[in-house]
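Request: When convenient, would you put together a sequence paired with its structure tokens?
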Amino acid sequence: VFTDNDLTCLYTIYDHLGFSPEVIVLLTGWAIRRERRAKNNPAACPRMPQVQREAFRWKRLGVDTLERAEDYLRREELVDQREWEILSAVGVTERRAAVSRERAYIAAWVDMELSTELIRMAYERTVYKKGAMNWPYANKILQSWHAAGYKTTQQVEAGDRPPSRQSQPSQNQSQNFQPTRERIEKNGDWLDQFLAEQEKGGG
């Protein structure tokens, strides 16, 4: 049974935020699933003030219509499916739900369609550089790889590797210079002039 405070929260979502009953149903279902997942308890339920806070977050994100709510929940489900996989890739050993800041990074990496292997490579480079996992630093690495179009670890390694020396002509390497007509004529003029000077000098 709803308390007076619960009814006030519900009325605030409906009237102040302007959520339709259909959006409120989706919002409440999402809040319940999130609470049960966070507490690892299939019987857990959020309190109405928690649902109201989530409603205000949805409003800030622009998730205030049925279509937008459905799109948002589809994206969140994708993040849910990969959350623990990505947490494991960045060194989390104890199974848990991501905190809000971690989830924001995970959602961004899911949007970029980054593979778990790439995320693991970024984690290893972050630890090598920083000594521990640093989410902003790893995010910058992954953003740069995404901007470069890298999809696999092999592409990253090839992109990081300096150009092969074999592709650059060596100074000591013999080069096949074919003489051009201009060079032949220039050399011919120079030889004629040289021979004329030699004849004048008698040498």
